[in-house]
Amino acid sequence: MSEKMRQGIHPSVVATLFLFLCSPRMDFLVLFVFYLTLVLISGVMICVCSKTGYLKGPVRRGTQIFSYIIPECLQRAMLRLHHYLFHTQNRTFILLHLTLQGMVYAEYTWEIFGYCQQLEFSLYYLLLPYLLLIVNLVFFTLSSVTNPGTVTKANELLLLPVYEFDEVLFPKNMRCSTCGLRKPARSKHCAVCNRCVHRFDHHCVWMNNCIGAWNARYFLIYLLTLTASAVTMAVVSAVFLVRLVVVSGLYQETYVDDLGHLQVMDTIFLIQYLYLTFPRIVFMLGFVMMLSLLLGGYLCFVLYLTATNQTTNEWYRGHQGCCPHVARPPSAHPQVYQNIHSHGLWSNLREIFLPAAVHYGGKKK
């Protein structure tokens, strides 16, 4: 353990630090927490409101307002960039994913790993994030390069009887307006990849690939390991900072406030001091904590879909009522979507992790 960690903090240094923290320019902690809270609340509200359609009006009005403020040339450039990033196949988000992952692991290796070794952390505990990284990159690659289940003229007849048509989201004898192929139940044409995908879940920009029947298992394991690595790094970083405070005895220090009174070190003061001493570690901790919450929430949603044998496309369309426009008699009652593909937890998991058994074994008529 370094000499800096062994020595206590001199009261005069603490008092100077306190005056600095109380200055108007140092409301970092409050602003940072407010920012994280705002991002999380905004994300939740967007998910909820997009499901109910409440955001359509405000978004349309906001777009109209910004169209008067932003120059037209900048609007066209933003639209082209948006179209390139989200409506064409490109590797931008793959590079961004790998860059962010590399930056987090570089900071972990450069600072946290060495400090934790000085504080005599278990080596197995410190190496766990690297093990998760290796597994995560393997399944990231598999999710990106594996054919998700492209429907072609050659396999069209093979895929048609695999799933039952529910006559709501997936009517019989429907042809893709783009490919011209007969659409198997649970398939969808991806406008980004320009192909029909069997058991289509969603197009993932981070993978530059669709998630479908053949790579859903890889995507699920990728998401599990990514969430686990974020949580593990958050735990290691938090435990390191807590142990550092305990070993250095910083929590027992006192300072003199601006009224001349002796005050005991409180939690807010400790966090701000740690940020000034280890800014990159504290910032990384905030980042991986926020990432853990977002990934954990999404992972729970994906696990729910897996356990109930639904896809993101089916869940969204079923809750939005976005069913195909099929000609029905005027007196016919509107049909409500029901999940007819769930056959129990183990059968649903088998369908994800052993898709060949479903497609070439016992097909559902």
Automatic annotation (TrEMBL):
UniProt lineage: Eukaryota, Metazoa, Chordata, Craniata, Vertebrata
Membrane topology reported for the UniProt record: Multi-pass membrane protein
Domain of life where this protein originates: Eukaryota
UniProt subcellular location: Cell membrane; Endoplasmic reticulum membrane; Golgi apparatus membrane
Catalytic activity: L-cysteinyl-[protein] + hexadecanoyl-CoA = S-hexadecanoyl-L-cysteinyl-[protein] + CoA
Keyword vocabulary terms for this entry: Acyltransferase, Cell membrane, Endoplasmic reticulum, Golgi apparatus, Lipoprotein, Membrane, Palmitate, Transferase, Transmembrane, Transmembrane helix
Chief site of localization: membrane
Enzyme Commission identifier(s): 2.3.1.225
Residue intervals passing through the bilayer: 28-50, 123-142, 219-246, 281-307
Name of the gene this protein is made from: ZDHHC4
Family: Belongs to the DHHC palmitoyltransferase family.
InterPro entries associated with the record: Palmitoyltrfase_DHHC, PFA4/ZDH16/20/ERF2-like
Name this polypeptide is given: Palmitoyltransferase
Gene Ontology MF: a single term: protein-cysteine S-palmitoyltransferase activity
Source species: Equus caballus
Any Pfam family matching the protein: DHHC
Domain characteristics, as noted in the entry: The DHHC domain is required for palmitoyltransferase activity.
Domain Palmitoyltransferase DHHC residues, every copy: 175-317
One Gene Ontology cellular component annotation held by this UniProt entry: Golgi membrane
UniProt xrefs under PROSITE patterns: DHHC (PS50216)
